Amino acid sequence: MRKILVVLSIMMLLCSATAALAAAPIKIGGLFAVTGPAAFLGEPEKNTLELLVKEANAKGGIGGSKIELVIYDTGGDVTKAVQLANKLIKNDKVSAIVGPSTTGETMAVIPIAEKEQIPLVSCAAGIKITDPVKKWVFKTPANDHVAAEKILLQASKLKQKNIALLTVSDSFGSSGREQLKQMAAKHGFKVVADEVYGPKDTDMTAQLTKIKAAKPDAIICWGTNPGPAIITRNVQQLGIKAQLYQSHGVASKKYIELASAQAAQGVMLPAGKLAVFDLLKKTDPQAKLLKEYNDSYKKAYGIEASTFGGYAYDGFQLIAAAVKNGAVTPAQIRDGIEKGGSMVGVSGVFKMTPKDHNGLDLSAFEMVRIDKGDWAIVR
Length: 379
Fold this sequence. Notes:
The protein is of the alpha/beta class. The protein has helices at 2-23, 39-58, 78-91, 103-116, 144-157, 171-186, 205-213, 227-237, 253-259, 261-264, 287-301, 307-324, 330-338, and strands at residues 26-32, 67-73, 96-98, 120-122, 137-139, 162-168, 190-197, 218-222, 243-246, 268-272, 342-344, 349-351, 365-371, 374-377.
């Protein structure tokens, strides 16, 4: 009898220890450009992650574990992003990181995530983040080559074969330029002008004057605000009639506001479905989630959710799905993200695999046209 009691006591202790382990909080880090030129990315990302963690903890956490959140503002600075990534891992002991906001910061942080073996779910779009695949790195925005293909498919439909490129000279712009040139050659387009501009440039009439002289059928601008908004105004000022395409890097109402509805009239770009969720068919697998996210964000912050905040939403949900399936350690979370199967998110329907750490395809975007200061889906 005594032996039975001893065995039962040991079993109870083991059960208690297991329960305590399961209930241990999980610490997640966030690296976002909340201030600085990329604040239009980082602020909604930070807001979204805080909102999701608050909602999750109000329901008892994830899989019985509360979520502890540590967020740092990188200011969009590469050096600062590296310092803060190290701080999150070595001082704060996070099990996973969502962010950074930009491609340049992410590329600088990747070696740290790989060395320290902490899953990093980037909110930046550059294809080099996940191609080639890095074991510990994932990203939630669709690859820029997917956005490039969406634009070129539209240009092809409209028989716009002579195209001009105007790309920003940062990591995002350089990656987009590379993808556009490769795909243009592959699909029979002729690049009649190839110009670049600096992230801090305030006037691009010099580049656009050269582009105008080349007589393109379409101009593809690749960058993030404020540059593309300035270019949009410059195109109008120079009386350029060629179709202007923007990248997914400006898929928020802020771009229209900066450019002005008049100058942006008719501009087309590939946008995540959140921008046009109220125009989607009810059968769209993302429609319900997008409405719920927008309503929740608007209730919390008084403004509509943005595509960029959606990148952080998806990053958190990928981590949360792994935790729900029993992941606790960084290695288990990494494996859970990679082998999680299909997940409906804000940015699209994710299908991560060991060979694809982005998991999105052309269905992640809708081609939209700006009409009277608002979005319209191009059918």
